[in-house]
Design a protein that fits this description.
The chain is α+β, with helices and mostly antiparallel strands. The chain folds into 2 domains: 2-100, Phosphorylase Kinase, domain 1 (2-Layer Sandwich), CATH 3.30.200; 104-269, no CATH class. It has 5 helices and 13 strands. The strands form 3 sheets. The chain has a 6-stranded antiparallel barrel. Strand 3 and strand 4 (49-51) form a beta hairpin. Helix 4 runs antiparallel to helix 5. The longest helix has 37 residues, at 233-269.
């Protein structure tokens, strides 16, 4: 096992450090920027350590620059209230980040049934599917999910945060007949902080962020959705895609209209 001295990013313990023991596990992904692998975490006193029940993943970056950029992106997203992984601990010396592993099985307290949480990275959805039942027939909360997805994209845009399509992780809480879907920003490598918050820049950010969220969700549907009855396949897909498009148009029109009215009011207030 190896020591990992982590700096807390966000929350009440921001900036404080905590030392834990890590047992690195299997590799999940690797590229020129970083490697990602599972990790068991042990915390507590020196004489009494216990394994943290929530699984973790460890990301090690190849350069100080890339590591610092990801940490900064997380800090800005956290500050603006965006949806992120529950755990994010950074070790500058090792250029490493410890994050919650969002894939896990658990026992539902009320029903006693085994349930499965699956996290699908939008930049690697196909290879991420490892479930014994890889397809899903429907999403019970899809309209509400789309509304929250787009509201989140607009929130980020107004804060000067550009969210690319591959930044999303989609979270499925799986049980037969109860397939809820949620999301977090799980891949921070492509997230960009835009310093210029001119009105025209914000409008472009809104359009781009909403489009990227829509495209990521559409990719999820194309790979993962498979209705139980094949004859309903195209109808179900069309309904979900239609919901994505309908809400996308509504959000864009609403936001641009509101910003246009605000500009008119500002012009009048300035005596123009």
């Amino acid at each position: 096992m190896e020591k990992f001295t982590a700096k807390m990013i966000g929350g009440k313990r921001y900036g404080k450090t905590k030392e834990v023991l890590l047992e690195p596990g299997e590799y999940l992904h690797e590229n020129e920027l970083r490697e990602v692998r599972k990790a068991k975490v042990f915390a507590g006193l020196k004489s009494k350590t216990r394994e943290v029940p929530q699984g973790m993943v460890l990301k090690k970056y190849s350069s100080d620059k890339e590591f610092a950029r990801v940490v900064q992106a997380h800090e800005e997203c956290k500050k603006r209230g965006l949806k992120l992984s529950p755990t994010f601990r950074a070790n500058k010396e090792a250029r490493s980040i410890l994050m919650t592993n969002l894939n896990r099985s658990y026992i539902d307290v009320k029903s006693g049934e085994k349930r499965e949480k699956v996290a699908l990275a939008s930049n690697n959805i196909t290879s991420a599917i490892s479930s014994e039942t890889p397809f899903i027939s429907n999403f019970l909360n899809f309209p509400d999910f789309v509304t929250r997805l787009y509201s989140h994209a607009v929130l980020a845009a107004k804060a000067g945060i550009a969210l690319p399509e591959d930044s999303y992780f989609f979270l499925l809480d799986r049980q037969e007949g109860d397939n809820n879907i949620d999301f977090v920003i799980g891949d921070l490598e492509g997230v960009k902080i835009v310093a210029d918050l001119d009105d025209s820049v914000i409008k472009k950010n809104i359009y781009d962020n909403v489009d990227h969220a829509r495209d990521a969700a559409r990719k999820l549907l194309q790979v993962y959705l498979k209705p139980e009855a094949e004859e309903n396949d195209s109808n179900v897909m069309e309904a979900y895609v239609s919901e994505l498009e309908k809400q996308s148009s509504f959000v864009k029109d609403k936001e641009i209209f509101n910003r246009g009215n605000a500009n008119i009011r500002n012009t009048r207030d300035n005596g123009a």
